[in-house]
Structures are given as structure tokens and as C-alpha cells.
């Protein structure tokens, strides 16, 4: 159980690094708090996860965070219709959750009431996996560039092709070159602004 969301806990590779400068991407982003010390400008996945955890502990958030929890239902309940919509006594939200156990099974349903709910689903939840014609005949490594699925030790002296041009494509160009690739090829429909 780690604070960091799916993008950093599950999707990111051990070699993943922040592509936005740390000065605008950290948890103490407030006028009253300086940027964290001990982290580089582009920290790694593991350094960011440690930062997220340390700040959550320092600010007393961990007892109030439920990790590995599935939200089953959110219901809007009107308690006093005659009150103005902004009054906290007018309405509440009833939320049903289930803790996801290590076995993948779900625990008993829990119910809680809240005055507001913030929902941050992110955009890296269901990556597109394609199978290309002739993959079975290809003699090299084929792997998805996230979830720690690719063995970068195999690219030394080679010229790997990276399909796509999202953040993980840019990351994999850097990582392949850091692991000794002679060059990398990007195959994409259109260029993004974040050029490697």
C-alpha cells in the first residue's frame, strides 16, 4: 500500500523519472512551504513515492487515507430541501466502499457520509494493448513500455523502435539511450510538444 496513485505505484517503471520539474510537482506546493530538499530536479519513481509517503505521514494524512478501496456507489441525499444549496445541512453524499484484499477479493461493504467528494480518476488507467501482425516471427524483444515489462539490458548496441508518442514513449527513448542503445526510433501518427 503506497500513496502515489496508479500512475506512480503501478504504471511507472523503476527507471521512470518526473518529466516536469520538481519545483511545480511536489506535495508541499504552498506559499508557506519551501520546495522539498533531498530530491533532484527530475526525481525517480521511487524517490517520488518516498516523498509522497513522507509528506503524508508528516502532515498526519495517513490515518485518513484508505488505500486499495473500491468505491461502489455515491448517492446524493437531500436532508432539508428548504435550505440553500450551499448549506452543509441541506444535503450529504452517502458513499459505499469495499476494501480490496491482497488476494484480490473484496471485504465487507462500508458506508460513510460526506459533505463533498472530489474525484480524480487520472488518465492512465486502461492502456491500449495492440498485437501487430508478425509479432510471433519477430526475433527481438516486444514489450509494453510501462509496468516494468521491458528488459532494458537487451537494448545495448541496438536501435529499438518505440511506437507512440505519449509520456511513456518519451521516457523510453531516454531509458533506452541510458542503457546503451545506439539510437531509438519513434513511430507515431503525429508529433507531440514533448520532444525527447
From TrEMBL:
Q: What is this protein called?
A: Uncharacterized protein
Amino acid at each position: 500500500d503506497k500513496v502515489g496513485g496508479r500512475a506512480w505505484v503501478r504504471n511507472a517503471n523503476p527507471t521512470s523519472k518526473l518529466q516536469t520539474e520538481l519545483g511545480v510537482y511536489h506535495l508541499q506546493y504552498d506559499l508557506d512551504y519551501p520546495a522539498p530538499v533531498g530530491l533532484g530536479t527530475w526525481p525517480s519513481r521511487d524517490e517520488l513515492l518516498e516523498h509522497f509517503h513522507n509528506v503524508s505521514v508528516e502532515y498526519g494524512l495517513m490515518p485518513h487515507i484508505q488505500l486499495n478501496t473500491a468505491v461502489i456507489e455515491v448517492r446524493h441525499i437531500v436532508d432539508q430541501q428548504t435550505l440553500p444549496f450551499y448549506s452543509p445541512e441541506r444535503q450529504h453524499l452517502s458513499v459505499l466502499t469495499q476494501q480490496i484484499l491482497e488476494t484480490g477479493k473484496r471485504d465487507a461493504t462500508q458506508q460513510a457520509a460526506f459533505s463533498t467528494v472530489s474525484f480524480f480518476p487520472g488518465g492512465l488507467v486502461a492502456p491500449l494493448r495492440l498485437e501487430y501482425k508478425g509479432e510471433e516471427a519477430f526475433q527481438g524483444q516486444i514489450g509494453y513500455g510501462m509496468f516494468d515489462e521491458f528488459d532494458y539490458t537487451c537494448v545495448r548496441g541496438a536501435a529499438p523502435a518505440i511506437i507512440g508518442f505519449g509520456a511513456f514513449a518519451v521516457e523510453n527513448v531516454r531509458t533506452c539511450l541510458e542503457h546503451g542503445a545506439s539510437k531509438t526510433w519513434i513511430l507515431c501518427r503525429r508529433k507531440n510538444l514533448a520532444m525527447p
